[in-house]
Amino acid sequence: MPEPHPMEKLNWLIHLYHIRGEIGPCRTLINDEIEQSQGKNEFALYKKGIILREEGNLQESLETFQQCHKINPENVDNLKQIGKCLFMLKRFRLALEAYLQAENAAQKHDWEIFHNIGESCLQLKDNNRAKEYLEKAVNLGKQEVSYNLLIKILSKENEWQTAVTTSNKGVESCPDSADMLTKSGILYLRIGETQHAFERLSSALALDASNHRALLGIGCITQNHEEHDVALSKYKIAVQTEPNSVALWNNIGMCFYAKQKFVAAVTCLKRSLWHSPLNWKVLINLGLVNLHTGQAASAFNFICAAVNIRPDLGHTFMLLGCALLELNDKENALQALSQALAMSPDDAYIVLNACLCYYQTGHRDKAAELLERFKNLANGVKTEELNKLYVKLDLSLTAINDADQPPPPPPTGIKSNENIINNPDDSAATEDTKESTNIADMV
After folding, report:
1. Distances (CA, A) of 321 to 348, 357, 394, 404
2. Which residue in 34, 216, 320, 416 has the fewest CB atoms around it within 10 Å?
3. Per residue in 84-94, is it b (16+ CB within 10 Å) or e — as a string?
4. Which pLDDT belongs to residue 441?
């Protein structure tokens, strides 16, 4: 009698057609094999499920992999593919159950299963369990995708030092990954270690000269050192590959602002705002530019919008008070600055602006009290503009106390307070109002 036709005889040809991208002949052969085996050829069904998923037919692909699982319930790959289809269908809880079943069925640890469980837990808002499984995946497989997801979770929870340590391990495991080097550099920049950040970002650019995130990071560092032309040269390259980046256009605008090119600054900032109308940092920067150019009404509108978006920051209320003072609304200006002081009583810039406001409105005792507080807080503040304002205000208050005479004209520095831009504070309590040295939007 003739030998029976082996079911796996043409599996190699199905696989060859698939990896070559010859989907038509592959599908025809798969259908013939499934029909000849009466639906029991597991490999043919498995390949059919993958092709259906690649074509976007997720539900049919899921049903096909479920058929594979019925034929061979001990095959872990079938469970992994079922979980993947369910995850792509956004049925995250069922996907998690499938991956957990695959973990129990696997005879040895599989980094991919751990990673997928962590990703599913992240979608279900179970961050602690997600971190646990992603750490297992990182320790077992050392795959870049697992490092990226773990860094994302740690950054969301503001565990910056742990995120930096994880990114360093990722760089050791993937030294040729420009993306991992960029992430590490941005994290170093986030915790204030500029030198390490510059080294990592430079290494990323050596591997990928058009990496817009690395260029943005380098530009932020040079811009913070007031090398605005160098920063603009980096941004010019980055904007060619990422023309719709909110952070890029915002930083370009602030470079032009520092170079006293206000029309270009407003143009770039408005382009950034067009891409992200609810970005409070761009709104604040537009308010600063308009305050500096004497457009107090426009500045008030932009700063009001920023206050409505972020009513939990003292800097937004401080700038609102400055705008109101320029509009001669002294009562509301004092209320806004009092609110800023209540929210950030140890912020030197807020204390200084409040002192100036109280001085202009005739509250000399309160201004003198705030000046003394500013003297204690301004030890770490070295900017030239703040020192000038401090000298002017100190002399003015001394003259008022010595002689009973009308106060001299107020210092003009209250109009824009440029120093808030050049001295960011990255802490959670007093977040900076400037995007150009804070690249949290890029992580």
Report:
1. 16, 8, 21, 28
2. 34
3. bbbbeeebbeb
4. 32
Specify burial of residue 333 (Cβ count, 10 A radius: 0-12, 13-18, 19+): buried
Our measurement of the distance from residue 213's CA atom to the centroid of its chain's CA atoms, rounded to an integer in Å, reads: 11
CA angle 227, 254, 283 (to 5 degrees): 155
First to last CA, the chain: 68
What is the reported pLDDT for 352?
Answer: 85
**Any residues with CB less than 8 A from the CB of 19 and at least 6 apart, and which?**
none
Nearest to 265 by CA among 231, 305, 293: 293
Query: Is the pLDDT confidence value at 403 over 90?
Result: no
**What is the value of pTM for the model shown?**
0.77
Q: What is the DSSP letter of 442?
A: G
Cα–Cα distance measured from residue 198 to residue 189, given in angstroms and rounded to the nearest whole number: 8
CB 256 within 8 Å of CB 286: no
- Sorting pLDDT into bands at 50, 70 and 90, what band is 357? confident
Name the helix (H) or strand (E) containing 378: none
